[in-house]
Amino acid sequence: MALRELASLEKYLGLKKPNKYSSRGDKKVTKPCIGLVTIARHLVKEAKQPELLGEAAEDRAVVHQWLEYRVSKLDGCNKEESRTILKDLDLYLQDKVCMAGNHFTLADVLMYNGIHPLIMDLTFQEKERYMNVTRWFDHIQHRAGIRHHLPPVVVLRNRIYSAKHP
User: Fold this and answer.
1) Residue 131 and residue 138: Cα distance in Å, rounded?
2) In contact, 43 and 12? CB cutoff 8 Å
3) Which of 54, 74, 85, 134 could bond to 63 as cystine, CB 3.0-4.6 Å?
4) Which contacts of 127-133 are long-range, i.e. CB under 8 A and separated by 24 or more positions?
């Protein structure tokens, strides 16, 4: 999963030479990177898009916090833990457009990829219960170049008729 996620990130960043973070046959990369967060941060720097890591020091700290949250809490969580995570994220995203406030960052990309399987497993009623997470998720999945290897998720149900009919 992580390799496809990193390849997708490379495409989004517009990097021309794929797999800078792995070995190629007998030829090894000169500076090996290990770990999803480390590699993702390296790719952002290679692409010369430092704004994805946060503009100010506080933004960079928030981005780093969410990157660590992704690998320490979200990856490998069980069903019960996933409900707690969704509830906490829903509360956090109540007054935010993106994970680091109002600006799209690497935290949005990695959290989107990490939360995708959880959102796929939710019913429409559950998605409505986590309205802020659903709004954020839908916003990120419709951003150009983000959803390379992941299937789209229908997050909202269209209501054909209102509750009251004339």
Assistant:
1) 10
2) no
3) 54
4) 127/155, 127/156, 128/156, 128/157, 130/86, 130/87, 130/89, 130/90, 131/90, 132/89, 132/90, 132/91, 132/92, 132/93, 132/94, 133/86, 133/89, 133/90, 133/93
CA 3/CA 94 separation, integer angstroms? 32
From first to last of the 166 residues of the chain, give the pLDDT tens digit.
Answer: 678 888 889 889 998 765 545 434 444 444 566 789 999 999 999 999 999 999 999 999 999 999 999 999 999 899 999 999 999 999 999 999 999 989 999 999 999 999 999 999 999 889 999 999 999 999 999 999 898 788 889 876 655 555 554 4
Q: Which two tokens stand for residue 75?
A: 């990856």
Strand partners, 24: 27
pTM score, whole prediction:
0.84
For residues 18 and 15, give the distance between their C-alpha atoms in angstroms, rounded to a whole number. 7
From CA 8, how far away is CA 46, in angstroms rounded?
15
Q: What is the 3-state secondary structure (H, E, C) of 2-70?
A: HHHHHHHHHHHHCCCCCCCCCCECCECCCCCCCCHHHHHHHHHHHCCCHHHHCCCHHHHHHHHHHHHHH
